[in-house]
Specification:
The structure is a single chain. It contains 2 helices and 32 strands. The chain has helices at residues 331-334, 339-343, and strands spanning 6-9, 21-23, 38-39, 74-76, 91-95, 101-103, 110-113, 119-123, 137-142, 145-146, 155-156, 161-165, 172-175, 180-181, 197-205, 210-217, 231-232, 239-244, 250-256, 262-271, 277-282, 291-297, 302-305, 311-314, 324-330, 346-349, 357-362, 368-374, 380-387, 394-398, 405-413, 416-424. It is 2% helix and 39% strand. By secondary structure, the protein is mainly β. Strands 15, 16, 17, 18, 19, 20, 21, 22, 23, 24 and 25 form an 11-stranded mixed beta sheet that branches. 30% of the residues are buried. A hairpin with a 4-residue loop joins β22 and β23 (302-305). The chain is elongated, with a radius of gyration of 25 Å.
Length: 426
């Protein structure tokens, strides 16, 4: 794919999204207004290293565009072809035809017929790579939510290519001048009525590669794919994270109804390379409804409360596609005494541990706390009870015997078990 300099995506190709890339016929071919293209720019490199396969450093390249500025209304080239792989049918790579930003959410700037409400944009400045692939990853946006948490995902840069997905025969997509926004357009603020309830899940590797997905709670969502609220997953070259809809489609943005009691949301991990991963969670401040979130790990059989500081580590040797899931609980119906709420108030510090002991702090005034310390493979290193002096909510645990690594601190209060993670890094 990267050996061809200018390519476009042919929607009618049968197979995965990787199969649809097609070269522009000749160097003098006229590029179609509104069609998206991928251009491989090799930089101002010398050819001195080609015969020896030596790495030749790139230098900056400036591209100049000349000609008449596009203005007015354009019918963008979109098609829909039904194939045996329905989840990839209808993907069209189109482009912003204007020399200005455009707003995908503009109510008067677009006419959309049989087009999903999501857009998919490749960001070359993100890191998602291995030794044989180019960097970059695809993020999605739909109805106020971006898969990676960026606020202005609805604003499409000048000349930017992006994917949309047609969902039926004879689709159409028309853009006009009203979709334009000026460079001072600020999308960092939303009206309260427009603020969605969602959070993002990220997977990060030691080499810096990352990917993100989003889960939204919305009263209009269903258990099926919602074309106005959901976005499919376009796979990256190295690592991928998504959630699964009812055991079927993998989604980069998954919208669900607010749980009436408890719901489990499967996480799907597709990791092609690398070691040393961890999951972390962002945008949790957007969840204002009385919902508690937990990370379920089928390998360690643990349930960890999701908090902004949670960094859950694991290695590829323990990685399975469906190892993790999210448990979302409606606090009003899953507990009458809310005793599990107190468990979220345990703090371990310093984290990472650089000395011989780790401090425990409880906001509640418990007199003892039973705990075990284990690694991600399930090996138990300690099992004990911490005695707190009555009225004093802090204590210390000796961890001098632990080698560097990531550990699970499983603790029990009032018969309820929860998990925190900590790192030893001396």
């Amino acid at each position: 794919m990267y050996k061809r300099q200018v390519i476009y995506y042919a929607e009618n190709t049968v197979g995965s999204l990787n199969f649809g890339w097609t070269s522009v016929p000749t160097a003098t071919s006229i590029l179609q207004i509104g069609r998206g293209y991928q251009v491989a720019v090799r930089g101002n490199r010398s050819t001195s290293g080609l015969s020896t396969f030596a790495t030749v450093a790139t230098s900056a390249t400036i591209m100049a565009l000349t000609g008449t500025i596009n203005q007015g209304t354009y019918a963008l080239p979109v098609t829909y072809t039904s194939t045996p792989i329905a989840t990839v049918d209808g993907f069209n790579l189109i482009g912003n035809p204007y020399p200005s930003q455009i707003d995908w959410n503009s109510g008067t700037g677009w006419v959309k017929t049989s087009i999903d409400n999501a857009i998919y944009i490749f960001d070359p400045f993100t890191i998602n790579t291995n030794a044989t692939t180019s960097p970059g990853s695809t993020f999605s946006y739909v109805s106020g939510v971006s898969s990676d948490g960026r606020i202005n995902g609805n604003v499409i840069a000048s000349s930017q290519g992006f994917f949309v997905k047609a969902n039926a025969a004879n689709p159409s997509l028309t853009i006009n001048e009203n979709a334009k926004v000026n460079s001072s357009h600020n999308s960092n603020f939303r009206l309260e009525s427009e603020s969605p309830e969602y959070f993002n899940i990220g997977i990060l590797s030691k080499n810096g590669s990352s990917d993100y997905t989003a889960v939204r709670f919305n009263e209009n969502a269903t258990n099926d794919f919602d074309s106005d609220l959901d976005a499919f997953k376009i796979k990256n070259s190295a690592i991928n994270i998504s959630t699964q809809l009812d055991g079927k489609e993998e989604l980069s943005i998954n919208s669900l109804r607010f749980p009436t009691s408890e719901v489990e949301i499967p996480i799907v991990l597709d990791v092609k390379t690398g070691t040393g991963f961890h999951l972390h969670f962002t945008s949790l401040e957007n969840i204002v409804t009385n919902i508690s979130l937990y990370l379920k790990d089928s390998i360690s059989n643990s349930l960890t409360e999701i908090t902004p500081d949670l960094m859950f580590g694991f290695d590829q040797v323990t990685l399975t596609r469906n190892r993790f899931s999210i448990i979302a609980k409606n606090d009003a119906t899953t507990s009458t005494d809310k005793s599990y709420r107190q468990l979220s108030k345990l703090t371990l510090y310093p984290n990472p541990v650089i000395g011989q002991k780790i401090n425990l702090k409880l906001d509640s005034k418990e007199e003892n706390l039973g705990y075990t310390i284990s690694d991600l493979l399930g090996k138990t290193y300690a099992s004990n009870v911490v005695d707190f002096v009555k009225g004093v909510s802090s204590n210390q645990v000796d961890v001098s015997y632990l080698p560097n690594g990531l550990y699970l601190f499983n603790y029990q209060i009032n018969g309820i078990t929860k998990t925190k993670t900590f790192i030893v890094n001396r």
